[in-house]
Amino acid sequence: MRDHHLGEFEQIVLLAVLRLGDDAYGVPIRREIEKRGGRKVTVGALYSTLDRLEAKGYLSSWFADPTSERGGRSRRYFRVEPEGAEALARAKEVLERMWKGVRLA
Amino acid sequence: MPEQPPRLAERIIRWLAPGREGDIIVGDLREEFQSRGGSRLWYWREVLSCAAVRLSPHRLTAPDLRQDLHYAVRVLRRNPGYTLTAMLCVALGIGVNSTVFCFVNSLFWEPLRVAQADRVVSIGRTDDDSTCSYRDYQELDRRSAAPGGGLFSGLMAVDDMSTSLDTGGPGGVSQIIMAEAVSANFADVLELQPQAGRWFTPEDERPGADPVVVISDGAWSRRFGRNPTTIGQRVRIGSDWYRVIGVAPGGFVGLSPPHSAEVWLPLLSQAWVRDYLANPGERDRPRVRLVGRLAPGRKLRQAEAEMKTIDAQVLREFPRDNALRGTITMDIAAGASMPAVREFATMMAVMLLSVTGVLLLIACVNVANLLLSRSAVRRREMAVRQALGASRFRLVCQTLSEGLVLAIGGALLGLVLGYWANGLLAHSLPALPHMGTVSLNLRVGWRMTAFAFAAALASALIFSIAPAIEHSRTDVASSLKGESPSRRMRQRDIYVVAQVALSLVLLIAATLLLRGLQHARQVEPGFAMDHRLAARINVSEPEYTPETGRLFLDRVLDRIRAVPGVRSATISYTTPLNMSGSVCAMPDPTARPRRVSSDVIVPGYFDTLSTPIVRGRDFNHRDLPSSPRVVIVNETYARRSWPNTDPIGKSVWLGCDPNRPRTLAQVVGVARDAKYESLDEAPRSYVYRPLAQDWAGFVALIVQTTGNPNDFSAPLRTMLHGMDSNLRVYDIETLEDFATESLWRVRWQAALLAVFGGLGMLLAAVGLYGVVAYAVAQRTREIGVRLAIGAQKADVMWMVLGRGLGLTAIGIGVGLLLGGAVSRTMGGLLYGLSPLDPVSFVLASLAWMLTAMLASYVPARRAMRVDPVVALRWE
Question: Is B75 inside any structural domain?
Answer without folding.
Answer: no
